[in-house]
């Protein structure tokens, strides 16, 4: 069940004093602190990868929030030429979403912008995984996950579930905003580096995570997962009805609008399909007219037709997840379109309602088909642990539950049509599908303020403060002189400096103001 649990990137240890040259020696302590912050991130990512006790996505998020201000500060110092590279910079990272064969290599990424992008990637994936862990820890609320002796949710469990679903939606919207920001900002900075390297990292290609299309696809996936989580929250009040009554008409009075649910699922289907389309950019086709010779010609043709700028392909579990969730969302959208047509339409359109729910049943049966299910479930050798098997069983139960509900609606409408209305069942292609409807968007991401600032920026800020103080004194002198002129006093308009008496008055006032300010600071600190 969404959201998807992503593998996180991993890295190796680095010491910034060995990478950077600090000519002014003004950033020595900052580089040491940045090295410590990056080491903390390295340990957090390593703990999650090895499933170490006490490791969690929260530790990764905390480490990123500590390290990111230092990283952005070092980038600012490099752009201001206050830090220089001692040699060709290499930042080793393991890209978790790119397929490289049986093992993920530690890629020698070039440029500090690669470091920036991988840290942001760890942050957005950590947010999604944190939402996944919150939802996994909630009390069982779906009918198939309840025990036989448990008839309904307690009030305490319902409150906990509502709070958990709300928190998960917020985290997924944050992850979507971070992915959008990285695609529009960090990827543009990294593009010249990728072009200069010819699209290659020694013998490997650049990871798919470094492309703008992948980050936009991740943003849409996070947003689709957030909408599905919001739908779960929307359906909580009618869970008791599902415990004690069989599926089918009529809907309970407090049931969410079927029209709203259909539009929400249509929007989810649109997001998943858009994400799949963006990820297909990385697919590496093999041009051959004879399908039986594809395997024989794969290696030679790839070397000829693949441009160097093509990134690596996305790992198969993510592509299977998107395919399954997009088809399931479309099936549920058609189910609720049929329910809305049959239950809430003033005109008698049982035939049209039956067409919608029958098409939904066909799509759900397609998901239940053994061949399709074999394609959609994880086939990776590394995913054969108990946790992955439990997740696959949960997904299987979810499809079976929806298929059971859909069959009940088909049976009910079929009976009405055969005994009362006798309407023709139109093909689903002849029906008009409405547009989807979003209920929220991605949360805009604001990067943290840098912990390391170039000294030139500090000097400019000090000069700006001095100019503001000078302008303030000039305004005081001007108003004082104008008041004296109105009273008949003589004052030279061409004089650039006020008379000694005015200077002494202004100076004394400034000193008094400074003393009062210092006194307030002391009193406040005490």
From TrEMBL:
Highest taxon of the lineage: Eukaryota
Region: Disordered, residue numbers: 506-526
GO cellular component: plasma membrane
Domain spans labelled BRO1: 2-526
Basic and acidic residues: bias regions: 509-526
Gene Ontology biological-process entries: cellular response to pH
InterPro entries registered for this protein in UniProt: BRO1_dom (IPR004328), BRO1_sf (IPR038499), pH-resp_palC (IPR037505)
Protein family per UniProt: Belongs to the palC family.
Name this protein carries in UniProt: pH-response regulator protein palC
Organism: Cryptococcus depauperatus CBS 7841
């Amino acid at each position: 069940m969404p959201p998807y649990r992503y593998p996180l990137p991993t890295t190796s240890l680095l010491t910034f004093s060995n990478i950077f040259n600090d000519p002014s020696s003004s950033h020595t302590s900052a580089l040491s602190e940045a090295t410590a912050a990056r080491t903390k991130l390295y340990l957090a990512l390593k703990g999650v990868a090895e499933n170490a006790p006490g490791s969690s996505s929260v530790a990764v998020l905390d480490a990123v929030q500590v390290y990111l201000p230092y990283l952005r500060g070092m980038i600012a110092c490099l752009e201001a030429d206050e830090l220089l590279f001692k040699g060709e910079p290499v930042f080793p990272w393991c890209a978790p979403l790119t397929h490289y064969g049986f093992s993920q290599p530690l890629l020698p990424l070039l440029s500090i912008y690669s470091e920036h992008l991988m840290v942001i990637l760890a942050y957005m994936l950590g947010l999604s995984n944190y939402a996944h862990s919150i939802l996994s820890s909630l009390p069982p609320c779906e009918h198939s996950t309840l025990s036989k002796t448990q008839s309904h949710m307690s009030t305490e469990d319902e409150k906990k579930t509502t709070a958990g679903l709300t928190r998960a939606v917020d985290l997924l919207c944050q992850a979507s905003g971070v992915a959008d920001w990285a695609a529009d900002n960090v990827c543009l900075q990294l593009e010249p580096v990728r072009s200069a390297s010819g699209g290659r990292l020694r013998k490997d290609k650049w990871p798919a995570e470094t492309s703008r299309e992948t980050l936009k696809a991740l943003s849409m996936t996070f947003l689709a997962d957030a909408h599905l989580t919001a739908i779960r929250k929307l359906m909580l009040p009618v869970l008791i009805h599902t415990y004690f009554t069989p599926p089918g008409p009529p809907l309970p009075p407090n049931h969410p609008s079927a029209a709203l649910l259909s539009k929400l699922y249509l929007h989810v289907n649109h997001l998943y399909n858009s994400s799949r389309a963006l990820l297909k950019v990385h697919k590496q086709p093999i041009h051959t007219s004879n399908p039986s010779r594809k395997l024989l010609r794969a290696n030679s043709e790839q070397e000829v037709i693949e441009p160097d700028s093509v990134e690596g392909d996305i790992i198969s579990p993510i592509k299977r997840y998107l395919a399954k969730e997009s088809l399931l969302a479309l099936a549920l959208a058609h189910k609720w379109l049929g329910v809305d047509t049959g239950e809430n339409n003033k005109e008698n359109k049982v035939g049209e309602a039956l067409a919608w729910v029958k098409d939904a049943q066909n799509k759900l049966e397609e998901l239940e088909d053994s061949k399709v299910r074999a394609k959609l479930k994880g086939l990776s050798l590394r995913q054969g642990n108990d946790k992955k098997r439990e997740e696959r069983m949960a997904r299987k139960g979810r499809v079976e539950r929806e298929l059971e509900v859909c069959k009940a609606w088909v049976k009910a409408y079929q009976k009405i049509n055969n005994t009362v209305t006798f309407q023709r069942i139109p093909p689903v292609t002849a029906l008009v599908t409405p547009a989807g409807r979003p209920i929220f968007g991605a949360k805009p991401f604001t990067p943290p303020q840098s912990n390391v600032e170039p000294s030139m920026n500090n000097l400019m800020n000090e000069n700006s403060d001095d100019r503001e103080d000078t302008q303030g004194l000039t305004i005081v002198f001007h108003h004082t002189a104008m008041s004296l002129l109105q009273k008949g006093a003589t004052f030279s308009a061409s004089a650039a400096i006020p008379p000694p008496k005015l200077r002494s008055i202004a100076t004394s006032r400034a000193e008094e103001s400074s003393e009062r300010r210092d006194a307030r600071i002391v009193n406040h600190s005490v």
